[in-house]
Amino acid sequence: MIDYVEQLSDEEKEQITEVIRLLYRQTFILERKYDRRAEKWQYSREYKICAMHMEFLKEYFQVAGIELVENIYLGVIYIRDGMLMGEKIPRLATIYLLVLKILYDEQMAQASSSTRIVTTLGAVNGKAGEFQVMKSLPSPTEIRRSIALLKKYQIIEPLDILEELNEGTRMIIYPTINMVLTGDDIRALLKTFGEEENSGDETGVQNIIEDLSE
């Protein structure tokens, strides 16, 4: 590894350092992301850097017991070390994550070729209501925090201003949702989640992502 780095220019070394920090911070790097200001999909400079130095980066992360994975079909590079997301996520964000997976799969089943899945906050809350996992509609502040957290991990991309949050607020669901939730029993887990909500038991909330990722 040292020999490889010594052959790089200072600029290339800085680029590698940048993508390593980015992967630690957000877990996923997408090949293409939607630029809301430009209103179009843009290729990721960071993804290109990762792909260029993939073998070195795999060895680098392997030293720390972390696997670097590239899914060419979905256009995602991500780190995996037992738990994909690097922090515990709150209950509402967990609910949204599970619901987003269902909405993503439903739309993908109907799509002919496009993987650009767009949903709305109203659809997310409505689907959560179907599973009775929320006693009441969360506060706008709580919703914004949950959306911001999922955006941080490249799970979604809000298309509208969060300060003007409403049921029509649109968001892209990125294919990274498949890296976090790979189980086929999402609906059953949501039903269990609903039972916990009704009983007031939140013991399963912190472990639900770990269970799905095993």
UniProtKB/TrEMBL annotation:
Give the species this sequence originates from. Answer: Claveliimonas monacensis
Pfam families from the UniProt entry? DUF4194 (PF13835)
Q: What is this protein called?
A: DUF4194 domain-containing protein
